[in-house]
Amino acid sequence: MNEIKLAEGVYWVGAIDWNIRFCGSYSTPRGTTYNAYLIIDEKVALVDVVKHGFSDEMLTRIKDIIDPKKIDYVISNHAEMDHSGSLPDVMKEATKARVIATEKGKEGLLKHHKISCDFITVKTGDELNLGKKNLLFISAPMLHWPDSMFTYIKEDRILLPNDAFGQHIATPQRFEDEVGDMVMNAAARYYATIVMPYAPLVLKKIQEIKDMGIMIEMIAPAHGTIWRKSPERIIQAYADWAEGKAKDKVLIIYDTMWESTDKMAKEILNGISSEGVEVRLFHLRKSDWSDIIEEVLDAKAILVGSPTLNNGMFPTVAGFLSFLKGLRPKGKIGAAFGSYGWGGGAVRAINEELKKAGFDVIEPGLEIKYVPNDNEIRECFELGKKVARKVKGH
Ligand code: FEO
Fold first, then answer.
1. Which of 62, 70, 360, 377 has the greatest number of CB atoms lying within 10 Å of its CB?
2. Listed range (135-139, 200-204, 275-279) with the worst mean pLDDT
3. Residue 394: pLDDT above 80?
4. Ligand 1 close to Cβ of residue 168 (< 6 A)
């Protein structure tokens, strides 16, 4: 295999997962990579390992460069199984290696794996001398697990932040400037589905790194491509996303039983469109929810529609709002609409959920009985206009 070098003595030795289509709670239509980095100096360090099942791919890459027995340290930035699953296999070959992690990382690794090895626990500011190169550790709790940390190679100015700044892309290319604009779409989807709940911590961590005087010339995350040409681009994007920056765009997200809510959704869309505002429509049983979440990131408003079922929301709508609430999008407008037969309830329930999720809710929303008549169709159009105008003035 060709060696992939980030700097003198720093190599990518990860694995490419072309076929993964679902990871945790979100979809990964482009696959992903599990990135591990080998640092060769007087001492040898391996930063992160890969998911179980990919050990051979990673160990083959390592063996092309060095005998794994020469590894002195295995640094675990994060214990989640996509970054630690192959640790038992690695430790069988890296027989003298000590494992470096945060205190919570150590706890996580020992709970996940049957391994017996020496640990060194580290926290922000701790350093490790490898010879000519020095590593600095920065705790990054809840970005996105309590154990998470970043490793920084001081002499090369390379930040290894594990999950942060990643993208789920399987590609033969290793650097962001080799894959074109799709890298930012993939990074946005990744942020929206994984990092969004921790937005305030992202801003704080970015400021903390600046305050530490850390110069970043390259960001090598644990998934996807390495930011070598424009690390500042992804840092700025994270800052913008964390602040809730969005464009004049509205999403209509709904489900329907006998097509009344569907009719409402499409007329609301016409109303939004008549104001010149970008609008996208998502039927919850015909859409990938991760696609919707990705779109939520840069939308200023969402309208959520549901028929009333047993005095409440349709199950798909309830499920989606539960997913959305956990991701805590910031600074967005929300509105509800829907139809009912003999007693309403869905719109009220959606309003409550949107409020709990932190949306600025336009109440009371719009709920109509059975099938919308001409007047009610006009009301749908007007609701669309109202939301669009609020978006434009927001
Ligand atoms: Fe890529 Fe938190 O694992």
1. 62
2. 200-204
3. no
4. no
Atom 3, ligand 1: residue with shortest CA distance: 80
Does the C-beta of 106 come closer than 6 Å to ligand 1? no
Q: Which fold has domain 251-389?
A: Rossmann fold (3.40.50)
Contact 36, 46 (CB under 8 A): yes
Q: Residue 332: CB within 6 Å of ligand 1?
A: no
Rounded distance, CA 73 to CA 70, Å? 9
Mean pLDDT (the chain) is: 96
Verify whether ligand 1 is closer than 6 Å to residue 147 (CB atom).
no
**What is the whole-number distance in angstroms between the Cα of residue 184 and the centre of ligand 1?**
19
Q: In what order do the strands lie in the sheet with 10-12?
A: 4-7, 10-12, 37-40, 44-47, 73-75, 98-101, 119-121
Is domain 4-242 annotated with CATH 3.30.70.3190?
Answer: no
Ligand 1 atom nearest the C-alpha of 145 is 2
Report pLDDT for 115: 92
The Å distance, Cα 241 to ligand 1 centre, comes to 19
pTM listed for this prediction:
0.95
H/E stretch holding 60 reads helix 55-63
Sign of CA dihedral 42, 80, 125, 194: positive
Would you call 223 helix, strand, or coil by DSSP? coil
Is residue 172 within 8 A of residue 203, CB to CB? The reply is no
Minimum-distance ligand 1 atom for the alpha carbon of 222: 1
Decide if pLDDT at 262 tops 80. Answer: yes
Token pair, residue 165, equals 């700044």
- Domain ranges for the chain: 4-242, 251-389
The finding on whether 51 has its CB within 6 A of some atom of ligand 1 is no
Q: Which residues contact 167 (CB under 8 A, 6 or more apart)?
A: 183, 186, 187, 189, 190, 221, 223, 224, 225
DSSP, res 243: T
Summarize the confidence of residues 237-266 as an average pLDDT. 97
For residue 48 and ligand 1, the question of a CB distance below 6 A is answered with: no
